[in-house]
Each structure stands twice: as C-alpha cells, then as structure tokens.
C-alpha cells in the first residue's frame, strides 16, 4: 500500500507540471477534434436523467432563494431596522452564507470523517481510476448540490444579484466551475473535484459572513461596534485564508495532482489538457481577485493583504479621531448619487490636510484608492469627485462599508 506523498513546493510544481504538460503535448501526435470526439464517446458517462435532475435542482435553488428572500431574509432585515442600502443586499449574502456553510461542512465530512485520503494524499485521487467507475453515493450527492447550485448561480448573477464591476468575471467563474463539475463527474474525476470544492467554499463562507456583519453594524440608526469589529477581523482572516486555500493549497495539492500525478497513475488519462486548462483559468481568477480587485461591492473581492495591513495601521487611528472629534455635515455638495457629504473638522488628520469628505457609495464606484478596507466605513487615499472637491479620506458615513 502506497503511503502519502509529501506536498511539493512551488518550484517542484512548476518543474514537474511543465515537464508533464510538455511531454504530453509532444506525445499527442493525433490531437484534434477527431481524437476529442472519440475520447468523449469512449470515456464520458453522463446520463440524460442525471442532467435533467441537475437542471430541476437548479430551478429549485432559484425558487427556494426567492421564497427565502421574501419570507425570511427581507422581513428579518426590516425587523432589525437595517439601513435601506444594507437591507437590499442582506438577502443575497444570507442566502450564499447558508449554502456555502452547508456545502463546506459536507466537504469537511467527506475529507476528514470518512476513509477518503484525498486531502492528506492528493495524488491518491487518481489511484485505481477506471473509465465509467461507480461514483460513491456520498460524493454524488455533493456533486448534485454543487453542480445545480452553480447552474442557479449563473442565472442569479445575471438577474438576481446586485450587478457589480466584476460580475462579468463572476459569470465566467461560474461557467468554468459548472463545466469542471459536470465534466469531472462524466469522466469520473470526482475525487479531485471534492478537493477543489472544499478548498474554494471556505472563502465564500468567510466573505458572506463578513459582509453580513457590515450590513448589521448600523441597525435602527444605532452603530453596533461588535459587528464592526467582527467585520474587520473577518476582512483580515478572509485575505489570509484566500491565499492559504486558493493560492497555496490549491496549486500544490490540486494542480500538482492533475498536471503531474495523474499521468503517473493513468498515462493516457482522457481530456488531460482540457481539465488542466480550466483549472489554470480558475487559478488565474483567484490570483486576479487577490491582487487586482479593490471593489467593495464584488462578491469574492476584498483587498490584498498588504492593503489590509496598511488600512489597519493608518485608518484605525483616523477613525478613532473622527469618533472623538465628531462628524459634521456640510451642504452644497452633490454627486451622481445625490445626498449629503460628511466632513470632519479642518486639520483632523494633521498638518497639510484640510478636509475630509465621505462620498455616497456610487460616487467612488470605480475610483482607485490607496487603501480601502471592506467592512470598514472609511477610505484612505486621494480622489476627485464630480464637483472637483478633493478628498483625502472618508470617515464613518455613507459608503459601501
């Protein structure tokens, strides 16, 4: 019986992964449409009944979400007296938190409370692989839930969720995820699929929980510090876990297994390039959201870790000062979203800084800031609004956070 292989480093992943991909490409003399069609016919096992069941479950998720939002989430938001902008967003986050908590918990059960060794020994996902092999019932249930939910999520992103700057990227992500889930089931790569889902779902749990605390920190016109503290802690832990699960464990456990170990166990494994290409696209999206995105409104996007450290270093003292000095309203300023701007007293931030302005949320949509903490009510940076007013920071007030 083979013992677990030690987890590789990034260098070993690059060397062995690239070497395996290059060797497979050189050895694929008849690669093309005809080979793909023949490989599909010989290896894919996906019944129409399974496709229909998945489609019905996707429809069920959509109906259930609408009912939950109408009967549970919105009334609860009204009972808590959330601000209107927060009450409008709360049902989406509550729904996603509920699903991802259940799905990630089930993934934990499969990986840590059964005999599956996939987390501790990722190359084992391809041991004893055979085309058309039976999918264990417990894994098939996870696949049905995930595949149908991502089918629902494509519709939800386009027609139910708040439209965001990176919604197009989110749609691409859902299409890639749905394709990976469906094809990995058809080709019986379900073992590695369970590992992929586990490594991604935890971040969605943290994200939606953090966003809910952002929405609940102002209830009935009263500021609740506990929710604010939890949202700031969640912001930090989210960024750390995003790196650990998606940029450390995912490539070193999953990509190493699919690029290198798969060929060691199954030399002519079907659709080798197709699946690895999709997994690499998924990796690039994970890197994009970690390094590039600043949006406070995007579903999986929070600033990268260095920004978080800067925010906590430079913004918390400012926020404390605002709380101590008080915040006053200044009239005569308006933006695309209308409403009032909030300003702090002159000189609050120290020498050379004359004014502090908080913008309505859609006024700073798309504006690059030097530091932005989601879950926090302030922004640190310089930007210019439609009126020409320059702001150096925004205190507690009207923003997304």
From TrEMBL:
Q: InterPro entries of this UniProt entry?
A: Lag1/Lac1-like (IPR016439), TLC-dom (IPR006634)
Does Transmembrane count among this protein's keywords? Answer: yes
Major location (coarse): membrane
Highest taxon, organism lineage? Eukaryota
> What are the GO MF terms of this UniProt record?
sphingosine N-acyltransferase activity
**What are the GO cellular component annotations?**
membrane
Keyword match ATP-binding: no
The record's catalysed reaction(s) read:
sphinganine + octadecanoyl-CoA = N-(octadecanoyl)-sphinganine + CoA + H(+)
Q: Which Pfam families does the UniProt record give?
A: TRAM_LAG1_CLN8
Q: Which residues cross the membrane?
A: 45-64, 97-119, 139-156, 168-187, 229-250, 271-291
Keywords in alphabetical order, please: Membrane, Transmembrane, Transmembrane helix
Locations listed in the record:
Membrane
**Membrane topology classification:** Multi-pass membrane protein
Pathways involved:
Lipid metabolism; sphingolipid metabolism; Sphingolipid metabolism
Q: What is this protein called?
A: Ceramide synthase 1
Q: Which organism is it from?
A: Pavo cristatus (Indian peafowl)
